[in-house]
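A student in our group prepared the protein record below, which I am reviewing. I have pasted the whole thing underneath without changing anything:
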Amino acid sequence: MHGWAPEVIGAVGGREPNPDGYLDVFFAPSPTSRAAGAEVASRIFGRTANRDAPTSWATRVAQYDAVCRWGVPNNALLQRVDAIRMPVFVANGDSDPMIVPRYSHLLMGLLPDARLKIYPDSAHGFLFQHHDEFALDVEAFLGEGEAK
């Protein structure tokens, strides 16, 4: 993954937050996913009090640069993932344009002890759209570690 697709950059890569772009990247195009996205966006973009400070443009550029550096094909670095011996929960939406699901499958295959969950009818905001299910899945995953 060497950077994001042009449509993702166009949707969320501008200097100013873009609620419509947010919906395009974080939610699938189905009516169900868009309705969930509209609810989340109204909470995020409609809130005016008790907000975290917005990230700076420099911070956002640094994050994107880090994504691009990580995405440069380098098998030696990718093989280092095998050294992670802790259980890992890998999760994604089935329609995520930012981190496409095949990368989640790849990561899961490289980790010695990973669980993978792909949430249906969702994109990069799967954890907001499927918040109840996601919370239960994380709780179950963490409970597996307690049982060992």
